[in-house]
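2024-03-11 09:14:02 DEBUG pipeline.ingest accepted 1 chain
2024-03-11 09:14:02 DEBUG pipeline.ingest length=400
2024-03-11 09:14:03 DEBUG pipeline.predict start
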Amino acid sequence: MGYDESLNLPYNIPANEYLTLKGEQFSKSRGIGIWVPEILQRFDPDVIRYYLAINMPENKDADWTWNDFVTKNNDELLGTYGNFIHRVITFTSKNFGAIPSAGTLTDIDNEAIQKIQETTREVETALQQCSFKKGLRAVMNLAQYGNVYFDHNQPWVLLKTDPERCKTVLHISLRLVQALAVTMAPYLPFSSERIWKMLGHQHLIHHWEDALHELSIGTTLETPTPLFKKLELTDIVTTTDPFSKLDLRVAKILEVSDHPQADKLYIMQVDLGPLGKRTIVAGMKPYYPIQEITGKSIVMVINLKPAVIRGVESKGMLLAATDTDHVVSLLDPKDSTPGAEVGIEGIAREPAPLLEFDAFKLAPMVIDAKGNAVYNGKPLKAKGIIITADKPVKEGAKIS
């Protein structure tokens, strides 16, 4: 306003609620989230975009769950949208090879054209108002309508009984496909571009009005390929990083005493903040005198299956690094508060209720050249603070 009249002032400030993961708000420091680099390695970007848009927390919090992610992909994106497009282009390409002309239009054909026009206007309005979920639902309703239109007219029967009517039905079906490609382009740009090229277009999708344009009769259709693939929940679960199953926390050592039945073991009372206090047994006696280790902040695995060690139950395991010279060092979380979660950026926390030691070994951690505790090259952090070795140890020292 103070500059001049050439700048546009905001006319709408949309705001969303929170997207949560299993009921918890996303948190980079706590490792709770869906990490873009990781998820792009596992899924088509348009699948991710679809779920984010259809599950957008526009008016209230929305929860990301893998079960719902799979359901939305299989039932909606693949089963309704992708299925209609693939069956129409495949049938037309196989039997005619190019876009057929339309003959006399029936009431149901005109209804389909009117449905295209209505959907295009509805999606455009929704996008202008930042009502993205509403716009996407309108596109999906058009895809559902397309399936009903295709099934009702049965072009596979018309191919033998009335070839001219079959051409008309396929022409209208292809117009529905074209409208879907255009209206879905803001949401799923990559698959929309593929559909656009399957229809024989040489230019990119760039105008909404293209959804209303007539098809170019006789244009050769490209060989269709499936846009999406079916997902299995078991595939997602089994690819979860083993580190996500660890529940690592910062703890403070309150009291230390010698184990009465072992020369190298300490019995420790540790404070986990809001999680309370615990007793653990650790073989730190040869490496840390009692006066040095008492009061230290450490990192420990709190969901490890409890073990009775020389008659004393240990409910957790502190983490320490050991190098090839047998130098042992505790991990140092600096000023992190007791109970703080320790995680890695890019790996969501999904701790197992009770972790077996063999499962712990599936996530090997080491000390890098900078003295940082790392897993797969990424540093362990507690509320943004990088965890390091308490004492100098060689690069590659194993953490256990």
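2024-03-11 09:14:41 DEBUG pipeline.report The chain has two domains: 19-233, 242-399.
2024-03-11 09:14:41 DEBUG pipeline.predict end
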